[in-house]
Amino acid sequence: MQCPKCHADIGEGSNFCPKCGCDLKAEKKEKESKAAPEDEKDRNGDNEKTDRNGTEAGSSLALSPLTSSSGGKAGNAGEDAAKPKGSIAGTYIAGMVVIIIICIIALVLGIVTTVSNAQMAQAASQADQSSSDSSSSSQGSSSSSSSPSDAQTYLSDAQNCSNVNSSNSLNETNATNSYEFSVTGTDGWGPIMTCVAKDLYMPLPVQAKIRNFINEDVSSQITSSATSTLEWKLQDGSSIFATYTAPLNGNGGWVVNFNDVEPSSASSSSAQ
């Protein structure tokens, strides 16, 4: 070991130089203190190199994945671009299918509702028609039972012919049927019979037959009983019956009975 100042040989482990008295311990510390920054610089330089090398290696390592990943990404981009398209198309088709199903269900429900409403309306119409028919029928039956027939109306009107001045007479002969009446006489066809024939809308053939009966009875003064009933129908389907009977008291008189009910005991013949 040498002294740092006088370069004299000194034994190992000495703290002072025996020749110049240099404090070897202090010199050693100073030397160590000066050497520490250089070591740090060296270490920092080595670290920087290591860092640069590591960084460069890392960057190269990082670049290669990036490069490869960029290629992969480019390849995947097509797949990713294709995937959304397929996904959108599938979603669109599914949505269209759902919409079509909903439209079909709505259409079926609409048809069912329309048919049901039509059936209900038809049933209601039929019920109303049936009710109206029954009402009309009841009204018709009630009106037919309450209102007089054409025969009854005409028979009532003809009884006013009793006011006509004539030798013949017109009398009501049935207390239970106010429409029935008779014309009696001993003379021929007269004003009362003319009035009655008009009010009863008596057809000309019926008038001619009754006139012949009366005139023949008056002229020959028939004494045997002779009866003949004539009928004519009116517009409403009702009928008027005229029953001729001779003689009256056996002196050539005659009786013509008018009724809306056919006599059960007389033989009748129809004339229009």
SS elements, strand count: 6
Strand order of the largest sheet: 1-2-5-4-3-6
Return Rg in Å. Answer: 73 Å
Q: Beta-strand percentage? A: 5-15%
Describe the structure.
Helix content is 58%, strand content 13%. Helix 2 runs antiparallel to helix 3 (191-199). It contains 4 helices and 6 strands. It is an alpha+beta fold. The protein has a domain at 150-270. Strand 4 and strand 5 form a beta hairpin. The chain has a 6-stranded mixed beta sheet with strand order 1-2-5-4-3-6.
Question: Could you give the topology of this structure?
Answer:
Elements: H1 24-146, H2 150-158, E1 169-171, E2 181-185, H3 191-199, H4 204-220, E3 226-233, E4 239-248, E5 253-259, E6 268-270
Parallel strand pairs: 3-6
Antiparallel strand pairs: 1-2, 2-5, 3-4, 4-5
Keywords:
4 helices, rod-shaped, alpha+beta, single chain, 6-stranded mixed sheet, 272 residues
